[in-house]
Each structure stands twice: as C-alpha cells, then as structure tokens.
Design goal:
The structure holds 2 protein chains of 2 kinds. Chain A is mainly α. Helices cover 77% and strands 2% of the residues of chain A. A two-stranded antiparallel sheet of chain A has the order 1-4. A two-stranded antiparallel ribbon of chain A has the order 2-3. Chain A is globular, with a radius of gyration of 24 Å. Chain B has a domain at 89-169. The chains are: A mainly alpha, B alpha/beta.
C-alpha cells in the first residue's frame, strides 16, 4: 500500500495526455455541433409562421455581408494585411454577374462562378502590386483601388452609372428562384465558404499565413515563402468577396453605381470583421450580421448607424481588440482549459498504471 | 572535417558605415562555433548575411562548398540551415505545437493537399505532430505543447525557438544570442540543450553570444570580429589569451 502511494506521487509530474486529447476532441466536436446548429436554425427560419418574403431578402443581404467579411478575414485576420478596398472586389463581382446576365442571359450559377473568378484575377494582379506595400501603406493603396473602381463604374457608360442595371428573375440551374429560395441559395453558398475557410485556416496553409502575420522573418527562416502565401491570401480573399458581390447584385436584382461606388461598403465589411473578431470562424459571421442589420433595426434613424458603428468600433478596439466573439469565447475557453488540465491530473492520481502506459 | 557553411570576403555597407569589411568565416561540420566581438563589431550583420536576410556588396556564401549567393531567406531551411533570433521571434498567437510544426514547414508538402486533408497529407501531418512531440520532450517542453506561446515564460520561449529550428531537420543551426536576457539557471539549462543538440543530433552550431563563460565552455572554435573585420580565430584557450582580443574588449593599457 505504501509502495502504491509513493508510486502515484512520483508520477504526479507526468500529465495524462490521452485523457486530455480525448477531452479536446470532445470540445472540438462540440464546436462543430454549434456551427451545425446555427446552420439548421438559419435553414429553418423561413418555415417559422409569420415569415414574410421581404425578410428573406433582408437575410440574403446579411449573408452577403457575412460572406464578404469572411473573405476579408482571410486577409486581415489570418494574414495580418489590412485592406480598406474590398468594396472594389464586391463591385467587380456584382458588375461581372450583372453584365453577364444582361448581355448573355446566363444562369446565375455560372455568373456567380465567373464573378468570383474575375474578382480573383483582379485580386491576383493587384496583389502583385500591393503586396510590395505593408501596414498603413497597403491600407491606403487598397483604398485607392476602391476609389478607382467607384469612379470607373460611375463614369464609364458601359456600366450605366447611377441609372443602374436591372436584372430579370434569377434562374439557378434553370429553376426560377423566389426571394426565399434565393435565401437558401445564399445559405448554401455561405456553407461552402465556411467549410472552405475552415479547411483553409486549419491546414498548414492557415498556419503559414498566421506565422507570417506574427513574425514575418521567423516564418521565412522556417521556409514559408512570403510572396506565395501572401499572394494566395490576397487572391482567395478577393475571390470570396467577389462571389459575395455577385450574390448582393442578384439579391436585389439591381446593380447601380450609387451603391457600389460607395466607399462605405469597403469600410463596412472591414468594420464587420474587426468588431466580430477577425481571426476566428465566428467573427465575420457575427460582425457581418451586426453591420447588415444595424441600419435596418434603427429603421427611420438608419443614418444614426454610421455614428453607432463608429462608436462600437472604438469600444471594441479599446475593450476587446480581438473582437466581440473572442470576448464571449474567452471564459468558455478558460473553463475548458481548466477542465483539460484537471482531467490530466485527476486520472493521474487515481490510476498511476495508466500513466505508466504513456511512457 | 569539411566546412559545412563558409563565407569569404563579405562586405556590407550601410550608407557610410562599413558593417562588414572583407569578413571570412568557416564552419566545420559537427562543431560548435562561436562568433564574438564587442558591440558594433558586425556579428549580427554577418549572421543575417549567412541566413540571407542581409544583402552583401562583395563576397560569397557557400553551403557544402556550393555557392548559395542567389538564395533567399526562405530557401535556407531547405539547404539545411536553420536560425533563431536575438529577441525571441515566435509566432506569438499560436501554440507551441504549431510553432514547432511551422519549423517543419518544408516537410509539410503540397498546401492544396493539406487543405483538403488528403490521406497522405493527414498521415504526414500525424507524423510531423509525433516528431514535434519528440523534439518537445527532448527540450523539456512537452507539457507546454497546447499553450499559446505568448503566455510562456522567457526561458521556455527560448527553448520553443530552438525546438522550432530543430523541426526542419537542419544540418546547421545559427543561434543569435541564445542566452541573452536569461538568468543563470536558464543559461545553464540552455547550455545543456545546446550540447545535446550538437552531440546527440550531430547538428553543427554557429552561435553569436556575449556570455563569455558560455562561449568558452561550449564552443570548439571561436571567431572574433572587431570594427567589422576579422580580428582573430582559434580555440577557446587561444582566444582567451590572445592579446589582440583582450585589447579589443578591455581597451589598451595606458603607459604610465
């Protein structure tokens, strides 16, 4: 008996990694479960009695903001490059699909893919230029890009300026879409983008981007090719935002320079990721929803939303620089960490033999 | 034994300042080499030349006798050259495990395959995680694997940095002031780590360091720089008694 006690005491130094890993795995499946739950709720919303088609329209707009914010989060959150010009990519996406549908009458499935590719191509070319800049210079450069696109669509007759381009009913794979079914399409798109970002961020690619963000030189000496990874981030980010732009055009079936030449579009999606939390999955989702719904919730005081957004942005930067989601998640993560640690130790005292197996 | 890394006639000018003037350095395989000199002697500049972060005006750098002048900093680990940084330069928002895995970046393979967790990629990743665990336990940081590194104490962070350098399977590690800012206890621990890395893993080490007792006790051979030029080289015993070196560090005695 004495012998046994001394044995367990001796092994207190060692932690039980197996139990900890098991718990960690359970926590991460809980996370996945939460995201799935969110999707089911979003999917079920239109079936709630009292749901009106205009609400679907509003929700589609929310999805547009969320997807655009997800696009910018790859650049700003994970790679640490601030872009104030992503509204430009949104406009490229919206105009590519609007013009395609107007002149060729293609299915919106094709138009969305084409828009994403077009924005991605622009992103690639701009990346070649802009990624020579960093920090505030990059921000100003991208801002210039957004102004350039804004001026272009305002003044080149082909883009029909403030008159705008009205689009026919949306046809997806030959099926005519109502407002509600367009919302489902947006939801499907949102799911795709979320899955993509999940695999992007959790793989060695995301790891390399975050390494470049945290310590550029160290990342390089680890063999991370700065040019390749930053170009990849810029291009992917532009592609996703371009797809969001296509969706935004189709959701209201009208594209005009009045909306897309507005620099506030760029600022809004940047505010969305910063308020929500730029380097986490939920950040753009919460932030995009917030930015999209704020003017709507204020109803007649919609103009007040500019002031409110500014105030909230300042508050977030002071009190939760990593975003609202991080602030909410922090106590939970802490609680989980404590649980993981205690599990590691508890098993240890009760079952020294299990510990012996480890080593 | 043959030189693993050597440079010849390196000159670096910053405007009017000559940071390195015709400096040469030979690093013999399997040895621990020290690079010392008073402040401003050009050690860090030379270090950055060797790891390709610094462009040089004249001279050449060779790895295993092959010219590597045209390579960039991110090619170095592929050639077997890893480095650490003077002030800790970790990926502060990532965990220890991720930091070590990034050290093994060149072994991670195709990024697209990784994103979609193809079977081979998953297998490779699992192997890398396993190896990261081995490296961590060798350096005594296996309990820290899941901790975000910015929360770790200084001495542990230093070890994480060495672990990260080791993960890329280098043939030589360039250590830039490995014990700067460490207390005596941490210094003693790191001395053991450096010895272990050199002996057990037979990795060559080049170390810039101001802690003379560490340099003298660990290094097999020492190069001394002063005012950007080679001043002396030799075994620790030779360097300790070299009058030129003593003069450079302590100044010349004034005749009474």
């Amino acid at each position: 008996m004495v012998n046994k006690t001394s044995m367990s005491r001796k092994s207190v130094e060692v932690t039980n990694h197996a139990a900890m890993t098991k718990l960690k795995r359970r926590f991460s499946s809980q996370n996945a479960g939460l995201i799935l739950l969110m999707f089911f709720i979003l999917l079920a919303l239109p079936f709630i009695p009292g749901f009106k088609p205009w609400m679907a329209n509003q929700l589609s707009l929310v999805l547009v903001y969320v997807i655009a914010a997800q696009g910018i989060s790859i650049l700003t959150g994970y790679t640490g490059l601030v872009s104030v010009g992503h509204g430009g990519f949104l406009a490229i996406g919206a105009y590519t699909s609007a013009l395609l549908v107007k002149y060729t009458g293609v299915d919106i499935a094709i138009a969305i893919v084409a828009s994403a590719c077009m924005a991605g191509a622009f992103g690639f070319m701009l990346g070649l230029v802009f990624l020579r800049l960093s920090g505030p210079f990059l921000a100003i450069g991208t801002l210039g890009f957004a102004f350039f696109i804004g001026t272009l669509i305002n003044n080149v007759p082909f883009f029909e300026g403030r008159e705008g381009i009205s689009l026919p009913v949306n046809k997806f794979m030959g099926v005519v879409l109502s407002d509600v079914s367009f919302y489902f399409l947006g939801l499907g798109f949102f799911a795709l983008v979320t899955l993509f970002i999940f695999s992007f961020v959790r793989s060695s690619v995301g790891r390399s981007l975050m390494a470049l963000r945290d310590a550029e030189k160290a990342a390089q000496s680890c063999g991370v090719n700065r040019f390749f990874y930053r170009m990849l981030a810029f291009t992917v980010s532009a592609t996703i935002t371009g797809a969001a732009g296509a969706l935004s055009g189709f959701s209201v079936r009208y594209v005009s320079a009045e909306v897309y030449s507005d620099i506030w579009y760029s600022v809004d999606i940047l505010v969305a990721v910063i308020v929500g939390g730029s380097a986490m999955m939920m950040g753009p989702i919460v932030g995009g929803t917030f930015v999209a719904l704020l003017p709507f919730l204020l109803e007649t005081l919609a103009d007040l939303s500019f002031i409110l957004k500014g105030l909230i942005l300042i508050a977030v930067l002071i009190f939760a620089p990593a975003g609202i989601c991080e602030l909410i998640a922090r106590p939970f993560q802490r609680w989980r960490q404590l649980q993981i640690e205690s599990v590691g130790k508890e098993t240890l005292v009760n079952a020294p033999s299990a510990v012996m197996h480890q080593h | 034994m043959a030189n693993i890394l050597h440079c010849a006639n390196i000159s670096v000018k910053f405007g009017g300042v000559i940071a390195n003037d015709n400096v040469s350095l030979r690093i013999e395989e399997g040895k621990v080499i020290g690079l010392i000199g008073p402040n401003g002697a050009g050690k860090t500049t030379l270090f950055n030349v060797l790891s390709k972060f610094q462009q040089y005006d004249t001279g050449h750098v060779y790895m295993h006798g092959k010219l590597i002048d045209s390579k960039g900093p991110s090619d170095m680990i592929g050639l077997g050259i890893a480095r650490t940084f003077q002030n800790i330069n970790l990926f502060s928002e990532l965990t220890t495990l991720d930091n070590i895995l990034l050290g093994a970046h060149r072994l991670t393979g195709n990024p697209i395959a990784n994103m979609y967790s193809f079977k081979s990629a998953r297998k490779r990743e699992r192997k890398l995680v396993e190896r990261a665990g081995e490296i961590a336990s060798m350096l005594g940081i296996s309990d820290e694997l899941d901790v975000v590194v910015k929360h770790l104490p200084y001495g542990i962070q230093k070890r994480v940095e060495i672990a990260r350098a080791l993960a890329g399977d280098p043939k030589i590690i360039l250590l830039d002031e490995p014990v700067a800012g460490c207390n005596d206890e941490e210094t003693a621990e790191l001395r053991e780590v450096i010895r272990k890395v050199n002996r057990d893993l037979s990795i060559t080490i080049l170390m810039v360091e101001h802690d003379m007792s560490l340099v003298m006790s660990v290094c097999d051979y020492i190069f001394v720089l002063n005012f950007g030029s080679n001043l002396a080289e030799g075994t620790p015993a030779q360097i300790r008694t070299n009058p030129e070196v003593i003069k450079a560090y302590l100044g010349q005695e004034v005749e009474p």
